[in-house]
Specification:
Largest sheet: 6 strands, mixed
Number of helices: 20
Number of strands: 16
Radius of gyration: 24 Å
Strand order of the largest sheet: 1-12-11-10-13-14
Length: 537
């Protein structure tokens, strides 16, 4: 069953006219007969609508900086902000050096009313001093929250003074929550500072191994990164750094030595990927390590890039062994999942990547979208030159990198690059829309009202969602697969991750829980009415 234009309009008709006009630009029905279908993205959510988005601070400290295990990450703001970006995201890390492992701690200035009135700079300086005295970190980050920006604390000046006192990098991030339209702004802010202050700051000139790579946009949720690295290292790759799941400040400094950058989450990290290409000449390859097919294709594309026959042969050997091992397991779960439908609305690239894994289980994705995407995440990178810079985007300082005359070198010849680009997604991402089936729904910044309406029409068998919206979905009698932090499961990446995902989805379908829940559309509503220009009618 598909949503018709008439049904879509009936959903939109329940909005006031201005809201209706806004939301209509964020929703489209895929139609392959149109050469290009434009979708609005990266614009502010309409005030009053319940969105699933996070803030710029969450994107900066919570997503990009937080997983770096050997840095102390201080939140300058209320304790709630610090806890939100510490306790709700399962970016796992291994405790290689107990003296330089800080992810177990939540560091905050715990701003109170008096700090808002009189300023919090002295308190921040004291916290930095205490952290150095107690933990002796090699580097510190300080992330600003909304109150800090509103009262005007000069976080940069405090950080610079602390660097002088202690002789270690203290990086400040002006990532106040209200900057930008979502957590995407925070990704950009974090990317800029890490590129400017950390990457390339070591004296290392050559990577310590063959086929050196950086893995970008992988946050080791539930152990995803470990499963990916297991396969890559067995094939023979040298992982220079991971940005930033189970990553370290120490390794990040050496990122300039890699021969190829792998981009998993395009939205959160494409800025660094582009800057690395400009500054050091390192191309980036769009990869997808979600699902057996996605992982297999990505591994083959990597081997093709390096062009080494021994590497290509080893890649095929590992793929053959892994596929032979997991296919029987996947097949038994497919018997439970085959023929079902899914909504896939979550995070950065996950709304796209997991559609392939659903398809491997026989589950068709009928609706998909992103919380904080830009148009290029939907339509492909061709549209980037046509995207207009708005006022919100101007809140984020642009970092214009130039060629490093000493370290820049072409990893492959220009002729080879052009040849490879015809075969693999080198320095390119086609976007989610290209792989969506005709008739499927694509929604940007899906809200709770639209969630309920689309569920009533399409009645999906499962909804891949985030933390905030899963409860609404479950109360409607639909299994919700939480893909923001996997709840208590994972990994879901790579070959083993595909089996784990298939197992968990199958358990969701087989659970008797849903027999005890009556979806609200099966009962008569207590009240009925519409919202018009004058209010509720």
């Amino acid at each position: 069953m598909a949503v018709t234009e008439k049904q879509l309009q009936e959903i939109l008709d329940q909005y006031p006219s201005k809201v209706q006009k806004n939301r209509k630009k964020h929703i489209l029905i895929k139609d392959g007969e149109h050469a290009a279908q434009i979708i609005e993205a990266n614009t502010r959510t309409v005030p009053g609508i319940i969105t699933n988005r996070g803030c710029a601070y969450a994107g900066c400290k919570g997503v990009v900086l937080g997983p770096l295990k050997d840095m102390v990450h201080i939140t300058h703001g209320p304790i709630g902000c610090a806890y939100y970006t510490w306790g709700t995201r399962r970016n796992k890390a291994k405790n290689d050096d107990p003296s330089q492992y800080f992810l177990n701690y939540s560091f905050s200035t715990d701003m109170q009313e008096s700090d808002i009135v009189f300023g919090g700079e002295k308190k921040l300086a004291k916290v930095i001093d205490d952290v150095v005295e107690i933990f002796h970190p090699k580097a510190i980050t300080v992330s600003a929250t909304c109150p800090v920006g509103l009262i005007g604390d000069d976080v940069g000046a405090v950080a610079k003074a602390a660097e002088g006192r202690h002789g270690i990098p203290v990086l400040s991030f002006s990532c106040e929550g209200y900057k930008g339209v979502s957590q995407s702004a925070g990704h950009h802010i974090a990317n800029n500072i890490l590129m400017d202050k950390v990457i390339g700051s070591s004296d290392l000139e050559e990577a310590p191994g063959k086929y050196p790579i950086n893995i970008l946009g992988e946050y080791n949720i539930g152990g995803d990164g470990w499963e990916i690295e297991r396969v890559l290292k067995e094939i023979g790759y040298t992982v220079v750094s991971v940005m930033t799941g189970d990553g370290t400040y120490k390794d990040l400094r050496n990122a300039h030595t890699a021969e190829l950058n792998l981009v998993q989450c395009h939205r959160s990290i494409n800025y660094i990927a582009e800057m690395l290409e400009v500054k050091y000449g390192t191309p980036w390859l769009k990869v997808n390590f979600i699902g057996v097919n996605g992982t297999t294709e990505s591994l083959r594309n990597m081997a093709l890039y390096f062009g080494d026959e021994a590497l290509i042969q080893k890649t095929e050997e590992v793929i053959a062994r892994e596929v032979a091992r997991v296919e029987p397991l996947m097949d038994q779960y497919k018997k439970i999942c085959d023929g079902k439908t899914a909504f896939c609305f979550v995070g950065g690239s996950r709304g796209h990547h997991y559609q392939g894994l659903f398809a491997e289980l026989g589950i068709e994705t009928v609706l998909a979208g992103y919380e904080f995407a830009h148009r290029d995440d939907y339509e492909g990178r061709e549209v980037i030159p046509t995207i207009k810079t708005d006022a919100d985007s101007k809140n984020i300082p642009e970092l214009h990198v130039t060629t490093d005359e000493r370290r820049f070198r072409l990893k492959v010849s220009p002729e080879k690059m052009e040849e490879l680009k015809k075969k693999i997604p080198l320095s390119y991402y086609a976007g989610m829309n290209a792989e969506m089936k005709d008739g499927s729904i694509i929604v940007d910044d899906l809200n709770h009202f639209e969630t309920e309406e689309f569920i009533k029409i399409l009645k999906p068998d499962i909804f891949a969602s985030g933390i905030k919206d899963k409860y609404v979905i479950q109360k409607m009698g639909i299994p919700a697969k939480q893909l923001h932090s996997y709840d208590y499961s994972g990994p879901y990446a790579g070959f083993n991750g595909a089996v784990n995902f298939a197992r968990d989805v199958s358990m969701g379908f087989a659970s008797p829980t849903w027999n005890f829940i009556v979806p609200p559309w099966q009962d008569e509503p207590l009240l009925s009415g519409t919202v018009n220009e004058e209010g509720v009618a």
